[in-house]
Amino acid sequence: TTYWKVLATEDVDVKGLAKAGELLRQGGTVAFPTETVYGLGADARNTEAVQKIFKAKGRPSDNPLIVHISHRSQIEELAAAPNEAVSRLLDAFWPGPLTVVLPVKDGALSPLVTAGLDTVGLRMPDHPVALQLIEAAGCPVAAPSANRSGRPSPTRAEHVREDLAGRIDGIVDGGATGVGVESTVVEYTADGNGDGTGVLHVLRPGGVTAAQLRAVLPGVEVREASAHLSEPSAAPRAPGMKYTHYAPRGVMTLVQGEDPERVLARMQRELDEARARGERTGALTFREHADALCADHVVACGSLGDLETVAHGLYAALREFDEAGVTFIIGEACPESGIGAAIMNRLRKAAGDRVIEAD
Ligand code: TXA
Ligand code: MG
């Protein structure tokens, strides 16, 4: 695995990126930073190359990949033209953490990318290194998160190395990612209400919040993905949502409730009982509450007063528990407003839907 360090993102190592782009063009796999998480890229038109992504990640082949582009004009070669509503979203959020699902053009991409669906998820990342790499590759770049399947997504190049060194051809290190959770995946359907207006389905909550989507599309119903894994959702689903993703090695349970004191008390009780059983315990909480909990390993993940900081640190926090050899984790829930919806979606998955109500 070749490793390129691209230190300052304003002054990218153009030579390194040219080589990494060449590797992609020749059918290799290269991990690279985006504003959300690190992606593992390959030429989306080349089936042999795309196969390497699935193999390196251990990813189930029925889970389609997002295709990354660097210019809006590339949509034309790959998918049906966006309608007015989707165009407004692209105006507002591209480049950025929004993936739009569109009908795929016949023969434009390897069938492995779409996993047999007749649609493709497209995204233009808001990261200078990602954009210049796609540019250098000169092809649409299929890229899932650059983790082994079932591990937390990587937000630093070290995470990619932990999971994939020796299994992929290159890693472009651009430092820590910004947003920290993946892009929001949306699909617009015209036949939603029966009243002529369409529905925007949020297939996966992410870096763009439902409120931001509604602000751009005031006349359109924005239907959020069901928060609970077990609840059947009315929306067409992102196939990837059914897998237990982002799982730390320890068994994790979330505690939620209106009253923080009761939540913390319940968390501590669970931790004490687990410790008495001989578990190595971990607590996932926020800066405001870190001193209130006692466990073998306490991680303060950002601040409740600024949920963006929680999203930014979430996956690194989950990885910390693995490094500490923790076998039992109690996590504190956060409010589901704004980016909190994406955070809680990921936390619920990491916890395999184990959630305790404190009140
Ligand atoms: O932020 C991100 O989106 C990151 C970075 C690397 O860009 N990528 C990412 O990819 O998270 P991945 O493969 O880990 O997740 C892709 C999600 C999955 O839930 C998948 O099922 C869904 O997008 N998806 C992809 N193509 C789809 C399609 N045609 N229809 C419905 N869902 C789709
Ligand atoms: Mg992923």
What does this structure look like?
- With 359 residues, the chain is α/β, with parallel strands linked by helices.
- The protein contains 11 helices and 16 strands.
- It has helices spanning 14-25, 47-57, 75-78, 84-93, 111-114, 128-137, 157-164, 210-216, 260-276, 307-323, 340-350; strands at 2-5, 30-32, 39-43, 66-68, 98-103, 119-123, 141-142, 170-173, 184-189, 199-204, 221-223, 251-256, 281-285, 297-300, 328-332, 355-357.
- The strands form 2 sheets. An 11-stranded mixed beta sheet has the order 1-8-2-3-7-4-6-5-9-10-11, sandwiched between helices. It has a 5-stranded parallel beta sheet with strand order 14-13-15-12-16, with helices on both faces.
- Strand 10 (199-204), helix 8 and strand 11 form a beta-alpha-beta unit.
- Helix 1 packs across helix 6 (128-137).
- The longest helix is centred in the C-terminal third of the chain and has 17 residues, at 260-276.
- Bound molecules: threonylcarbamoyladenylate and magnesium ion.
Radius of gyration: 20 Å
Count of extended strands: 16
Order of helices and strands: EHEEHEHHEHEHEHEEEHEEHEEHEHE
Largest sheet: 11 strands, mixed
Helix/strand/pairing class, anyone?
alpha/beta
**Bound ligands, each once:** threonylcarbamoyladenylate, magnesium ion
Q: Give the end-to-end Cα distance, rounded to a whole number of Å.
A: 50 Å
Low-pLDDT parts are 229-235
Main β-sheet, spatial strand arrangement:
1-8-2-3-7-4-6-5-9-10-11
Shape: globular
Per DSSP, what share of the residues sits in E-state strands of 2 or more residues?
15-25%
Please tally the helical runs, counting DSSP H or I stretches of 4 or more residues.
11
